[in-house]
């Protein structure tokens, strides 16, 4: 369970998160939508402790992320995250990309890590690209590799930050299919996305962020069907 | 603590002479840059020309300039060429040596910069009816100069520092030469060269600042 | 312990010597240091009962080498000016030079005043360079160029880059004779006060300087001074190191 | 071809000078690189404000002629501190710091060239700062920094010609000594220049080749 | 009139144009469609002599483009061309971009060139951007500026090479509108494009290139309505 309690965060004078409260249950798929600069990415990077927060608390399975005593490197193994782009380590092959963290962080043996990596890469449909360098992959394949890499750490939660926005329209489908697959397997996920159709289909709940505030949160049918705030109405109209 | 008594007054009393030297240093460096840039453009054109001879000349120039010590180049410009009966004054030898060096390094920079300019730029120019030279002059070169502006600033600083090598060819009017002359008279090595170091440092800062302001004025895009 | 003790204790005497200044200092065919100053240093080391180590310096660099502790003394034809004595300690003179005007064959020049308006040069940091630069300033015409070492000066003179130079008579004669520098000739004596040169040490090392003074005295007394003169400079009388009408 | 008085002995003498050039260069490049990496990482890690004093000092090494640095260091260490170091030691110290000043810039630039999201991805997988540095940043930064570093090393070799001012007889000084004796400036200078060129040129080419190869993928 | 007679062109071992025959009448709008690498761009750059040809002839108003005696710089003034991207000279303002060629090539005086430039920029709807640098323009505005720049030389023919492919979908419309305007004014144009709707609306004839060969050429209704060759059928199906 991920609990976000009254989290505030500023960059200099700019307040990016203005008191966010949000709880994600195990097995839930939550999507976050909202305009550019509304604080979606910032929230994700706060959840796995890449960014410090100014006040409030974030608890992952009851552990406070930003407490001094928390071993972040250990906590992060629970939380997989995939960004919009630049996810691949360009100097490593696809297989090495995926094996790196299991070996270095979990201390797996080479054959063990390799078996795990192959399994996850096959899971996302890249079983035939093991010894290729990322520069040879399409953008969609790179993103799927990044997903496999995160899955190789056997995370309990997965965070996705607009993983399809930097892709050619042709390649968006394959990545969303992978996310769908994960959702269907019961993974707990938070997905920031601009793909409304995807959000509607896959999510248990959809949250709408606006200027650092979570303006609305509801199951997709309700949120898309009967948007309450004028901001959301405007946003939906613009993206339609 | 130290077993040495500083005599800063002695050194500071010579400040006016050293500042005169600084002016000469600036003159040589600026001139060598101006000529160096012009030559580097010519070398770049040579390398683009497709002519074996011209690009051979340009490549040799660039490689010798980049692969031998500047001190060697300056020494060569004075004592080396004199073996052929060509005599240059210390000032000219220093200028030639630094200019040779500048042109080589800048030409190499320009080549890198050219790679960063898409060839559709020149093509677009040619399509409008500009001749090859016009397309280079009005479209490619200005962009090339902009991309190489920072390397050019660094080269300018280098040129300033290189003037200190003029003493090996009998130069005694630049900042280093003046300082060395004063040192011969008084033997206050540390104080004199410390003052010279401060002046050199200030000159390079002024140049870097000036370059930044210049860049802001010149490159508004 | 002072420097003199240190030298004796270390068993090594490090002398700064200028090695492109024949016959005072130069290198033989094996590039080993030789010359009047080299022998002088060896004699001194022998007197101290230590090993001599010759450290080559240029004229501009001999004081920094001394003051920065890389050498113990300088046997480097250092002129004993009052300005310099503010910084380093001088012994009594161990040699005195007369200076000659040397010109390129292609340049017409009858006597030293012929240098007026010409391009002249000398070795940076030397007595004659300081004098010549002063002359050029006084004349208000012509050009003065200091080179880093004596060899560059004669090279430039021989190449015709310089019209004339002033150097010690010894150096001038040695260079003209050697044939290494074709196309140069001695024109005239330079009208300078003889250039008395002294050994140098750190200003505060009075014990060492006293020792040096006595050593120089002994060199003259024992005839070693004349012997070295004959060996390196040639026939004739070595310069008189005493000055009439004044103590010391 | 040349009618020369140059003897085998003299060639050995030149070779010794060349050996000195290479020795001084290797020392300076080795220690300068180690220091440069430390300084570079430090500057990157603590940010511009805290690093300002270090930045200033390193900048000084890049803003003053090496000749003056050598003369000053020599005078300061010897006259003022009276350490009694040999000229060779002083030359190595100054060249090392000089190298480190440039190297720190290269290191910082190379680290900055690693895209932030790549490093975030690494940290998100649970890699520690050290693991991120060694497994991700180092291999990527080397590709960016190595060509400049090769250029720097060659630059140091060429600049080492200036250590003659602290009584170190390196290649160019050896050449001048022979010129004094043999009076064949052109021939000797050619030999000297050729030596520098023959070391520098192939290495520079190698740098260019690596740069091309690595920027490709 | 542009006459292309049996033109062949290879890059090394690769034959890119395998004997093209094509005549474009004055006032005609011809669009060229075809897969990637089929030789469309190469043909355009051969027409204004930027690329040499291996055999065949290209005549523009009866002048042979690739004849030795032809003054290409003069000929090119007749033929405006706009590429897919990198058209703007980034170091010059919009006005200077457009004035450059009239001044340097035609030797116009400054006020004369300026008047011409302003006129053409207003024509493409950039009258308010005169003293702005191209980096401040959107991609669509940059392309329109490039069109104005070509028009400022009063060309008789205009060649367009996928001028909208590098643009955000939002910006495609404004550029196509400019092309439509030109077509309606009677400009003779050859447009390489992937915008089938545009090709259908605007062209007098559409040519389909396939692997260096002009596989089909016909008025749009016919070409799109009843494609003959299987290659074209496949191509149209893929782009639909
Ligand atoms: N490291 C940072 N330093 C300063 N400001 C930042 C930083 N990261 C983000 N911001 C600012 O914080 C605000 C919120 O950024 P954030 O990336 O969270 O938005 P977002 O909702 O993800 O937008 P988008 O849909 O464009 O990705 C923006 O105004 C952004 O400029
Ligand atoms: N300068 C060149 N050197 C070598 N090959 C080239 C060159 N220009 C183009 N080619 C090759 O010629 C072929 C045809 O290229 P061209 O650009 O004409 O195709 P196109 O039909 O415009 O394709 P696209 O729709 O992708 O722009 C391609 O295979 C291309 O790789
Ligand atoms: Mg974001
Ligand atoms: Mg094309």
UniProtKB/TrEMBL annotation, chains A, E:
The keyword ATP-binding applies. Pfam families: ABC_tran (PF00005). It is a peripheral membrane protein. Keywords: Amino-acid transport, ATP-binding, Cell membrane, Membrane, Nucleotide-binding, Transport. InterPro entries: AAA+_ATPase (IPR003593), ABC_ATPase_HisP-typ (IPR030679), ABC_transporter-like_ATP-bd (IPR003439), ABC_transporter-like_CS (IPR017871), MetN_ABC_transporter-like (IPR050086), P-loop_NTPase (IPR027417). One of its GO terms (cellular component) is plasma membrane. Residues 2-236 form the ABC transporter domain. It comes from the Bacteria. This is Amino acid ABC transporter ATP-binding protein, PAAT family. The lineage of its organism: Bacteria, Pseudomonadati, Pseudomonadota, Alphaproteobacteria, Rhodobacterales.
From TrEMBL, chain B:
One of its GO terms (molecular function) is L-cystine transmembrane transporter activity. Residues 18-211 form the ABC transmembrane type-1 domain. It is found in: Cell inner membrane; Cell membrane. InterPro entries: AA_ABC_transptr_permease_3TM (IPR010065), ArtM/GltK/GlnP/TcyL/YhdX-like (IPR043429), MetI-like (IPR000515), MetI-like_sf (IPR035906). It is a multi-pass membrane protein. The keyword Metal-binding does not apply. Keywords: Amino-acid transport, Cell membrane, Membrane, Transmembrane, Transmembrane helix, Transport. One of its GO terms (cellular component) is ATP-binding cassette (ABC) transporter complex. The chain crosses the membrane at residues 24-46, 156-173, 193-215. Its main location: membrane. This is Amino acid ABC transporter membrane protein 1, PAAT family. The lineage of its organism: Bacteria, Pseudomonadati, Pseudomonadota, Alphaproteobacteria, Rhodobacterales.
From TrEMBL, chain D:
Residues 18-207 form the ABC transmembrane type-1 domain. GO terms for molecular function: L-cystine transmembrane transporter activity. It is found in: Cell inner membrane; Cell membrane. Pfam families: BPD_transp_1. It comes from the Bacteria. One of its GO terms (cellular component) is ATP-binding cassette (ABC) transporter complex. The chain crosses the membrane at residues 20-42, 49-73, 79-98, 186-204. Gene3D superfamilies: MetI-like. It is a multi-pass membrane protein. Keywords: Amino-acid transport, Cell membrane, Membrane, Transmembrane, Transmembrane helix, Transport. InterPro entries: AA_ABC_transptr_permease_3TM, ArtM/GltK/GlnP/TcyL/YhdX-like, MetI-like, MetI-like_sf. Belongs to the binding-protein-dependent transport system permease family. HisMQ subfamily. This is Amino acid ABC transporter membrane protein 2, PAAT family. It comes from Paracoccus solventivorans.
């Amino acid at each position: 369970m991920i609990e976000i309690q009254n989290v505030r965060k500023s960059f200099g004078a700019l307040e990016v998160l203005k008191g966010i409260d949000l709880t994600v249950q195990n097995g839930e798929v939550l999507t976050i939508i909202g305009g550019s600069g509304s604080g979606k990415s910032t929230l994700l990077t706060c959840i796995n402790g890449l960014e410090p927060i100014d006040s409030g608390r974030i608890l992952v399975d009851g552990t406070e992320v930003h407490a001094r005593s928390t071993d972040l490197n250990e906590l992060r193994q629970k939380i997989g995250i995939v960004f919009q782009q630049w996810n691949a380590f360009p100097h490593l092959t696809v297989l090495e990309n995926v094996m790196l963290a299991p070996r270095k962080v979990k201390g797996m043996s080479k054959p063990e890590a390799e078996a795990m990596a192959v399994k996850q890469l096959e899971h996302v449909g890249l079983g035939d690209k093991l010894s290729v360098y990322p520069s040879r992959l399409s953008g969609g394949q790179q993103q799927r590799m990044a997903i496999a890499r995160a899955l190789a750490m056997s995370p309990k939660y997965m965070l996705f930050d607009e993983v399809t926005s930097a892709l050619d329209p042709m390649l968006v489908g394959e990545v969303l299919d992978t996310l769908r697959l994960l959702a269907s397997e019961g993974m707990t996920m938070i997905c920031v996305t601009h793909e409304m159709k995807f959000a509607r289909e896959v999510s248990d709940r959809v949250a709408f962020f606006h200027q650092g505030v979570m303006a609305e949160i509801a199951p997709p049918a309700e949120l898309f069907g009967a948007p309450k705030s004028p901001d959301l109405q405007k946003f939906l109209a613009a993206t339609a | 603590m130290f077993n040495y008594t500083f005599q800063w007054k002695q050194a500071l009393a010579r400040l006016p002479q050293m500042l005169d030297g600084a002016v000469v240093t600036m003159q040589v460096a600026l001139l060598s840059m101006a000529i160096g840039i012009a030559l580097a453009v010519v070398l770049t054109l040579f390398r683009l020309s497709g002519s074996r001879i011209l690009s051979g000349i340009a490549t040799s120039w660039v490689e010798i300039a980049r692969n031998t010590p500047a001190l060697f180049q300056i020494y060569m410009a004075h004592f080396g060429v004199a073996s052929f009966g060509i005599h240059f004054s210390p000032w000219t030898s220093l200028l030639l040596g630094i200019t040779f060096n500048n042109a080589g390094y800048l030409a190499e920079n320009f080549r890198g910069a050219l790679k960063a300019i898409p060839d559709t730029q020149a093509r677009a120019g040619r399509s409008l009816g500009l001749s090859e030279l016009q397309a280079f002059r009005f479209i490619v070169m200005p962009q090339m100069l902009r991309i190489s502006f920072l390397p050019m600033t660094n080269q300018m600083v280098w040129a300033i520092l290189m003037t200190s090598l003029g003493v090996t060819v009998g130069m005694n009017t630049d900042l280093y030469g003046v300082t060395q002359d004063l040192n011969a008279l008084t033997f206050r090595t540390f104080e004199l060269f410390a003052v010279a170091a401060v002046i050199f440092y200030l000159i390079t800062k002024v140049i870097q600042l000036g370059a930044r302001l210049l860049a802001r004025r010149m490159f508004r895009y | 312990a002072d420097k003199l003790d240190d030298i004796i204790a270390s068993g090594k005497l490090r002398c700064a010597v200028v090695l492109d200044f024949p016959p005072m200092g130069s290198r033989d065919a094996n590039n080993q240091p030789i010359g009047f100053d080299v022998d002088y240093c060896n004699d001194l080391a022998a007197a101290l009962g230590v090993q001599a180590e010759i450290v080559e310096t240029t004229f501009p660099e001999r004081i920094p080498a001394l003051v920065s502790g890389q050498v113990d003394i300088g046997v480097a034809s250092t002129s004993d000016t009052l300005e310099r004595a503010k910084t380093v300690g001088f012994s009594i003179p161990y040699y005195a030079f007369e200076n000659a005007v040397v010109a390129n064959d292609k340049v017409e020049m009858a006597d030293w005043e012929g240098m007026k308006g010409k391009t002249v040069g000398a070795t940076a940091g030397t007595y004659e360079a300081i004098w010549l630069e002063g002359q050029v300033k006084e004349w208000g015409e012509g050009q003065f160029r200091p080179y880093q070492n004596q060899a560059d000066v004669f090279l430039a003179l021989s190449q015709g880059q310089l019209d004339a130079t002033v150097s010690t008579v010894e150096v001038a004669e040695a260079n003209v004779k050697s044939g290494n520098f074709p196309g140069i000739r001695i024109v005239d004596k330079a009208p300078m006060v003889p250039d008395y040169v002294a050994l140098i040490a750190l200003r505060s090392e009075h014990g060492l300087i006293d020792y040096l003074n006595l050593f120089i005295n002994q060199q003259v007394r024992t005839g070693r001074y004349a012997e070295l003169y004959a060996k390196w400079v040639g026939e004739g009388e070595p310069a008189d190191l005493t000055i009439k009408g004044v103590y010391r | 071809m040349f009618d020369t008085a140059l003897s085998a002995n003299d060639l050995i003498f030149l070779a010794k000078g060349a050996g000195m050039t290479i020795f001084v260069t290797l020392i300076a490049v080795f220690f300068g690189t180690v220091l440069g990496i430390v300084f570079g990482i430090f500057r990157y890690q603590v940010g511009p404000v805290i690093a300002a004093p270090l930045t200033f000092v390193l900048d000084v090494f890049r803003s003053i002629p090496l000749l003056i640095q050598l003369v000053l260091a020599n005078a300061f260490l010897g006259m003022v501190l009276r350490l009694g170091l040999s000229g060779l030691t002083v030359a190595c110290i100054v060249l090392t710091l000089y190298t480190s000043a440039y190297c720190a810039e290269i290191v910082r630039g190379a680290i900055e060239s690693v895209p932030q999201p790549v490093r975030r991805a690494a940290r998100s997988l649970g890699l520690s700062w050290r693991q991120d540095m060694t497994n991700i940043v180092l291999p990527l930064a080397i590709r960016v920094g190595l060509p400049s570093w090769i250029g720097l090393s060659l630059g140091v070799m060429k600049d080492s010609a200036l250590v003659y001012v602290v009584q170190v007889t390196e290649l160019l000084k050896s050449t001048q000594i022979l010129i004094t004796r043999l009076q064949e400036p052109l021939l000797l200078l050619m030999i000297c220049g050729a030596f520098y060129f023959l070391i520098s040129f192939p290495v520079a080419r190698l740098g260019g080749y690596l740069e091309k190869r690595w920027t490709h993928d």
